[in-house]
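Hi R.,

As promised, here are both runs. First protein below:
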Amino acid sequence: MSFADDVKNTLFHEISIMAQTPEKFSVHPGRDFTRYKKISFRDVLTFPIVMEGGTIRHELYKYFSYDDQTLSNSAYCQQRAKLLPDTFKHLFRQFNSHYPLASYKEKYRLLACDGSSFTFTRNPKDTLSYYGPDGKSSKGFNMIHTVALYNLSDKRFVDAVVQPIRKKNEFSALSQLIDSNSGDDLKSVFIADRGFFAYNVFAHAIENGSYFLIRAKDKNMERLTGQEISDIPENFDSHVERFLTRSSSKKKRLHPESPEKYRCICKQVRFDYLKEDAYDEYHMTLRVLRFKITEDSYENIVTNLPDDEFPLELIKELYYARWGIETSFCQLKHIIGIGNFHSKKREFIEQEIWARLILYNFCSIITNHVTIKKQKRKYSYQVNYTVAFNACHYFIRLRNTEVPPKIESLIEQNILPIRPGRNYARQHRFQIPVSFTYRFS
C-alpha cells in the first residue's frame, strides 16, 4: 500500500468512526440520521471534502456516478442542516492527530497566523455577514472571515477560527488559538503580521508558556521605545518592560519610580488578565527589534524569544518564513477552491471552509512526503503544488473499484525551480462571488 493510500484510508476511517455514532454530531440526537436516506451520514461528511467548484446538482451527480436516483439539492441541504456546527472541525482535528506536526530545532513549533475574508452569495437576512451597497458592490455582499494557524515546518493547517465579518476580531481569534495550541512538549512560536499586535495577545502567549513573534507598526515601535522612528538605530535589539493597569491613578502604582513603564488599559480594550475595576498590575518584558530589509525600508518585531537562542539574524529568517501562510491561502483559494461556496447560509459556508481545510491538509501531507531527487542543476527544485494538489483531489474522489494513479510518482515528475529573491506586489482586489448559475467543473 502506498503512503497516499494510507492517508486516504486514515481520513475515511475517521469518517467511519463518526458514522458509528451520528447522534454525537446531530442537532436532534436520536432523531436525525436514524432512517434510511439516499445520502448516508458518511456521505454527508465526505461529499463537501471531495466536491469541486460546480453547482450542487452537478457535484451530486458526479459523486453518485450520475445515478438517476441521486437525491435532490433540497434533500442534500436538509441532511447537512442536521449536523452540529463543530462536526467538520472535529473531523479536521481527528485526521490531523494521526500525523504529528514537524518541529523546529526539536524544541519549537513554528505556527504562523493570518486572516482572510471570503465573499459569498448575497444574503441580506444574515445581518452578521452582510454589507449594504457601497463603492465595491451596487447590491451589497456577504463576507466571512477566517483566522488560521499554519505549521510552517510541514505546511499544514493546525487550527482556525471562523467569524462573520461583522464580528471580526483578529486579536480575540489569535488569543483563542494560542490557548488551544499551547502546553505540550514542544514550545509554540506564534508568528503574525502587524494586524495582530496587542498586549492581550502577548499576555496569552506568556501565560501559556509559549512564544510570539509579531510585526509592529512604526507608531507602536515609537511608543515602546520612547523614541522617534527616525532615531532608532539600525539592527536595534533591546528589551522593554511594561506594567499594565486598568487605573490611571499614579498613587496606586506599585512602581512609582518607573512612570514611563506604565500603560493604562481602558475598559473598552480587552485584556483578560486584569479586572476592570481593580488596581491590579500585569508585568511583561518584551524584546523589541528593528532591522533593515531593503535600501529604504525597515521591519519592526516584538517578541519574547530568548536572545541567546534567537539572535537578530535568526529572527529575520523566522519572520520571513511567515510568508508560507500567505502562500497557503493563495493555494486554498486558487487550487483547492475554498471560495466556490455552494450555499447562501453562513452555517453551511463554515462547513465548507472546514472541509476545504481538511482537503488542503490531505493534499499537503501526501505532497510533502514526496522527496525531490537532488541533481546537478542551476537551481534547487520543489514540487509543483498546483499539479500535486489537483492530482490528490482527483485521487480522493476515486471509488474503491477504480484504479488509482501512482500519486507519488506523478508529483515527483512535476517540479519547479526555486528562484531566490523573486517577489511580486500583492494585488488587493474585491472578489465577487461566482454565481451558482455559471459554475461547471
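And here is the second one, sequence first, then its C-alpha cells:
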Amino acid sequence: DLSAWGKVDASFKSSDLEAISVVPNPYIVDSRYEDSGGGHKLYFTRLPNECTISIYTVTGEFVRKLDYSNPFRGDLFWNLKNSNEQVVAPGLYIYVVEASSGETYTGKFAVVR
C-alpha cells in the first residue's frame, strides 16, 4: 500500500537525534571529494524535519547558525563558511542540533587543510 508515501512522519523520537552524522569527517580540504565543481561542502545527514544547527569552534566561539526545514530529505549542505561568509579555519568544531521539539544533540567534526 503506497498511500503513506510522501507523508510526513510526525513520530520523532529523541533517539533519532543520535543517528545524525557529518560527512565527510574529517573534511580534508585538499581531497578530491568535491571534484564535481560544487565547491567545498560538508553534509549534515539524518536530520529531523525541522531543526537548527549551531556550529562552534572547540573553544566555544560561535561560527554559524543553520536553519533546516524539509519533511522529505534529511540532509543539509554547508559551504564551510562562517556567518561573515569567510571560509572556516582548520580545526575541531562542535555542532549542536536543536529539534523543533527542543531536544538537542551535540557532535563534532574536523576540518583539515
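A quick note on the second one: The first strand starts at residue 21 and ends at 23. Let me know what you think.

Best,
J.
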